[in-house]
């Protein structure tokens, strides 16, 4: 019987004949199934369904509560425009996920329950799959993000709430040894990260706390505190706030300056920056 913890090594072993100029032992049926899966990805990507971005889902219960509060209270997310290249990013992300599942299947590890709907305390979600009976979330990551999975440090820096999402899926399925199968989209390296049980949050309590905060008229505390910009005495938004579409709601007096390294968002200015101020960042 295949062991889940050996999955990445088993994938590498299955692919090892290629480095010797030898053919892989893949059936025509497996190739056809992979081709059909890729076709489905393209179809779904090209014809997206209308989605309510203001519904509590398993995929967002781990996000900062203040961000969720603004998401729900300001449903139109005014003055926020997604970058034009995002559809391309989504497409190759979905394609890489199918590549990963294909590689799992040729190792003969079992893949079941793909996109199964689950529910915890009225919050629904869809698991990517189970591998060898355990809930596995498939992720594609940059080199920097990949290392958080590879080194087991995701719990210390998890701005997208992946750990809470996994915990919710496992709560619904009654399993405890799941994790993340991740591909470094820059190098092709794989890792399987199975967090310790004590590192995972308790999903039902998270959901209860979110629902309570959403009933309040005032937002929760800020997600991240401003940080110093050098030694000037000026304070700026941290990285996780820069990409948030609610930053001007949290900080109405935010000022933006254009540096060679990019835009810097100041929450407090003691010494006026000697670079161009950007007055329109819509």
Keywords:
282 residues; alpha+beta; five-stranded mixed beta sheet; five-stranded antiparallel beta sheet; globular
Report what the structure shows:
- The chain is of the alpha+beta class and 282 residues long.
- Helix content is 35%, strand content 17%.
- The protein contains nine helices and twelve strands.
- It has helices at residues 7-15, 28-46, 65-73, 86-106, 143-150, 162-173, 203-214, 239-242, 247-250, and strands at residues 111-112, 117-120, 123-126, 129-131, 134-141, 179-184, 190-193, 227-228, 235-236, 255-259, 262-268, 277-278.
- The strands form three sheets. The protein has a five-stranded mixed β-sheet with strand order 1-4-5-6-7, sandwiched between helices. Strands 8-9-11-10-12 form a five-stranded antiparallel β-sheet, with no helix packed on it.
- α2 runs antiparallel to α4 (86-106).
- The mean pLDDT is 93.
Structural class: alpha+beta
Global morphology: globular
Uncertain regions: pLDDT < 50 for 5+ in a row?
A: none
Radius of gyration (CA) equals 22 Å
Report the sheet with the most strands, covering strand number, pairing sense and barrel closure: 5 strands, mixed
Count the DSSP helices: 9
Approximate helicity band: 25-40%
Order of helices and strands: HHHHEEEEEHHEEHEEHHEEE
Strand order of the largest sheet: 1-4-5-6-7
Which oligomeric form is depicted? single chain
Summarize this entry quickly:
This protein is an alpha+beta fold.
């Amino acid at each position: 019987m295949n062991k889940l913890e050996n999955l990445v090594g088993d994938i590498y072993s299955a692919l090892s004949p290629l480095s010797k100029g030898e053919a892989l032992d893949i059936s025509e049926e497996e190739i056809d199934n992979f081709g059909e899966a890729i076709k489905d990805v393209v179809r779904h990507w090209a014809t997206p369904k209308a989605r309510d971005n203001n519904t509590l889902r398993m995929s967002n219960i781990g996000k900062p509560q203040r961000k969720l509060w603004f998401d729900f209270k300001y449903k139109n997310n005014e003055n926020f425009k997604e970058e034009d290249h995002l559809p391309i990013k989504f497409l190759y992300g979905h394609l890489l996920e199918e590549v990963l599942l294909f590689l799992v299947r040729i190792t003969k590890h079992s893949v079941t329950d793909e996109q199964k709907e689950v529910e915890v305390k009225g919050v629904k979600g869809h698991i990517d799959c189970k591998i060898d009976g355990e809930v596995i979330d498939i992720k594609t990551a940059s080199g920097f993000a990949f290392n958080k999975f590879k080194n087991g440090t995701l719990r210390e820096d998890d701005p997208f709430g992946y750990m809470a999402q996994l915990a919710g899926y496992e709560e619904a399925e009654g399993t405890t040894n799941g994790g993340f199968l991740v591909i470094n989209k820059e190098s092709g390296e794989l890792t399987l990260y199975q967090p310790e049980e004590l590192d995972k949050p308790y999903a039902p309590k998270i959901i209860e706390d979110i629902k309570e905060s959403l009933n309040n008229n005032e937002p929760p505390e800020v997600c991240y505190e401003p940080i110093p910009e050098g030694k000037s005495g000026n304070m700026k938004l941290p990285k996780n706030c820069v990409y948030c579409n609610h930053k001007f709601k949290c900080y109405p007096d935010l000022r933006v300056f254009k540096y060679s390294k990019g835009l810097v968002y100041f929450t407090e200015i003691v010494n006026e920056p000697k670079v161009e101020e950007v007055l329109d960042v819509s």
